Amino acid sequence: MTKQDLNKKEPIPESLKELESIFEKRVGLGKSFDLGVRHIKVLKKNIQLYYINGLTDTLYIVHILRELVEVNDTERLSSKVYEIVQNRIVNQSVEIVKTFDEMVDQVLSGLIAIVVEGEGQAIIVDVRSYPGRQPMEPDTEKVVRGSRDGYVENIIINTALTRRRIRDERLRFEIMRVGERSKTDIAIGYIEGVANPDLLKTVKKELQTIDVDGITMADKTVEEFLLKQGYNPFPLVRYTERADVGSIHLLEGHVLIFIDTSPSVMITPATFFHHVQHAEEYRQSPAVGTFIRWIRMIGIIASLFLLPLWYLFAVEPSLLPEHLEFIGPNKQTHIPLIIQLFIADMGIEFLRLAAIHTPTPLATAMGLIAAVLIGQIAVDVGLFVSEVILYVSVAAIGTYATPSYELSVANKIARVFLMLCVAFFKLPGLLVGGTLFIIYLAHIRALNAPYLWPFIPFNPQAITHILFRRTVPGTKIRPSIVHPRDRFRQPADK
Fold first, then answer.
1. CA-CA distance, 281 to 290, in Å (whole number)?
2. Could you give the CA distance from residue 272 to residue 225 in angstroms, rounded to a whole number?
3. For labelling alongside 118, which of 7, 322, 336, 346 has CA 20 to 30 A away?
């Protein structure tokens, strides 16, 4: 069947036999075990109920069927069977559709369709019960003190967790379906009167132009269509699995994108410094939060520049002042330092990938084996000098201290680039490579937002918010990068 045939708005036939025949030919009724139909009679009129096993709540369906069957015992024969049936459906979400395509989309989404013979329209009832886990704290965004609920793979639960925190009548969740075959639900969350209308219009336009069979990889697929990222390794949207983080960004004027089947919510727009913040900073006092932020910044800087700097000083010891002459390898090996650095750095990546794929009971044993093999034995046999292990380990710790996993991997790629620049051109290579790196980041724009804001372009007031964790009562103005319609988070007279 061609794509044009699928897009054609075919009306629902009044004959239930014809409708069932179309379901058999186009949707696979009778072949797919999870697609079912229930036939009943109400006041001598045939009624069909279509459903998908596994996506619907059986108890709700049984309750609705019981209500409809009991009509035969309580109502007299009438020509208004459709109105009686519609009135007897005890559910808070009922919708009428008149085309076959809409009916099929709703049934395949987990709703049920009730069709009365001779009416040519279907009553859609929301009895969805998607399989999935309960809200729990995300593994990648844990905090010492704070809420333990997080987003899950169910878009309904995710929007409910957000609305629970923002009970504003202007909070909006606009839903659409993307994917010719997957028909994945996507919800755009924003606060009307705060979010920038131009940003909202851009996000809607880009999402509506997505033309693909399916987005089963959910958020990452949508990101590639939305931002045209190409081979740029740096993340252009921020992902979060915490409902409190998503909510605070809504209040700042950001637009959130919820995608069904994904526990991660996309925050747009996002700059480089959005990816280096963590919820733990806001669960502590401003002084402690600032201290944590600075330590994290040092870790991120170390993950980028520590190895290139150490290698530069190792090959050009004349650049070191006298009191730092101890920096550098104490013994020589047959393997060049740059090769040692790359091998050790790649070994860390092997460990990271192995940890992802290793069952939890074996992870500790794998860590002990890796520490012995890559650490002590590698030094003893002369594969590495001990300083290489030390500095690669510190850089790896800085990588893991980066809150955003996507940013940590991108920084590792940038670190390899800087190490190659030093290997080929020594000090000029580091200076030129570092400059090119900054220029490259400054050139990036995420939904028309400068990636290095507030440093480029320079915004002194916003920089203080980056360097220091400000108190909530002292934060009265929303970030200007999102161009909010309402600039003030608190009335100016307070």
1. 7
2. 20
3. 7
Question: Which of 105, 125, 75 minimizes the C-alpha distance to 12?
Answer: 105
Number of separate domains in the chain: 3
In a domain, 473, yes or no: no
Phi, psi of 484 (to 5 degrees): -70, 150
Do 296 and 356 sit in the same domain of this protein? yes
**Tens-digit pLDDT string for the chain (494 aa):** 444 444 457 899 999 999 999 999 999 999 999 999 999 999 989 999 999 998 999 999 999 999 999 999 888 887 789 999 999 998 889 999 999 999 999 999 999 999 999 999 999 999 998 888 888 888 888 888 888 899 999 999 999 999 999 999 999 999 999 988 888 999 999 999 999 999 999 999 999 999 888 888 888 889 999 988 888 999 999 999 999 999 999 999 999 999 999 999 999 999 999 999 999 998 899 999 999 999 999 999 999 999 999 999 998 988 888 777 778 777 777 788 999 899 888 888 887 887 777 776 666 666 666 665 666 677 767 778 888 888 998 999 999 999 999 999 999 999 999 999 999 999 999 999 999 999 999 999 988 899 999 998 898 889 998 999 988 888 888 998 999 998 888 665 44
Domain endpoint, select from 92, 125, 158: 125
Max intra-chain CA distance, the chain: 103
Q: Whose CA is closest to 246, among 172, 330, 171, 151?
A: 151
Give residue 84's domain range.
3-125
Mention every residue, 6+ apart, whose C-beta is less than 8 A from residue 191. 166, 168, 170, 171, 172, 250, 251, 253
Mark which of 94, 125, 156 sits at the end of a domain.
Answer: 125
Q: Taking the model in full, what pTM does it have?
A: 0.88
Residue 426 resides in a domain: yes
Question: Does 15 share its domain with 93?
Answer: yes
